[in-house]
Amino acid sequence: MNADQLPTTRKSILETLKREGKAAIADLAGRLGMSGEAVRQQLLQLQREGWVEAIRDEAHEKRSGRPAAHYRLTTAGDHLFPKNYDQLGIALLDAVAGHLGPDALSRVLAGMTEARVKLWEQRLAGRPLPEKLQALTALYDPQGTNGGTAYAHVENGAGGLRLVEQNCPFLNVATERPAVCSVSVSLLSQLLGVEVVREERFQDGDGRCVFRVYEDRPIPEDQRGWKPEPAKSSS
Predict the structure, then answer these.
(1) How many whole angstroms separate alpha carbon 110 and alpha carbon 100?
(2) Pair (38, 115) in one structural domain
(3) Which of 73, 154, 160, 216 is geometrically suited to a Cys-Cys bond with 77, CB 3.0 to 4.6 A?
(4) From the centroid of its chain, how far is CA 79?
(5) Is 232 part of a structural domain of the chain?
(6) What does the radius of gyration of the chain's CA atoms come to, in whole angstroms?
(7) How many CA atoms lie within 13 Å of 49's alpha carbon, on the beta-carbon side?
(8) Which domain holds residue 69?
(9) What is the β-pairing status of strands 160-165 and 209-218?
């Protein structure tokens, strides 16, 4: 969702708040040529969506003795406007590799993996492998439930367990710098304790990533850790 996809009036209110930082209903009404009540109704809807919040203007209250509500964008509301995190991520990866060398980049990716392992290992402790894999679908959709998410699910067919990722949250960065995908593969391997191989890839035009989980290929604890993802087999 971005601001351009919203109805014209709500988009105009958000754009005004983005430019001004904050504004009262009367200010917005005057700028947009709307009645105060019409603006109020639009603001209520924007608040329900979590994109706008009301704040007290203490300076006005001291002068007049009456509270004056002003409105501003929330963090979620600000994210309706263009951001360029992908290019920042790519630039940071290139800076690490360019200034400190490829080994330093590997250490950074390994550190990212270990941090996520620590975050998840207690949540998964004691669960059987299929339950662990189901819980890990939340990596791709934090709002998902134990029954699966809108963007990732587990398949358990004749070929064994597979985690299917239909939405990569880092797709633009991963497309330009595939090394970051090693974090996902290593994370799954460490948390599940078995070999995991990515069989389908967004980068190859598959429209999804599919991680094959080899239950019969356990990885000894002393051999678990971040590893670069092997190149996809041409066979």
Answers:
(1) 15
(2) no
(3) 73
(4) 12
(5) no
(6) 24
(7) 21
(8) 3-78
(9) antiparallel
pLDDT, tens digit only, all 235 positions of the chain: 778 888 899 999 999 999 999 999 999 999 999 999 999 999 999 999 999 999 876 655 555 555 568 999 999 999 999 888 889 999 999 999 999 999 999 999 999 999 999 999 999 999 999 999 999 988 876 554 444 466 889 999 888 899 999 888 888 899 999 889 999 999 999 999 999 999 999 988 899 999 999 999 999 988 888 888 887 765 4
Q: What token pair was written down for 38?
A: 């019409």
CA neighbor of 2 nearest in space, from 79, 86, 87: 79
> Helix 8-20 vs helix 25-32: angle between axes, to the nearest 10 degrees?
120
The number of helix segments (H) and strand segments (E) in the chain equals 10, 7
Q: Tell me the two tokens of residue 5.
A: 């996809």
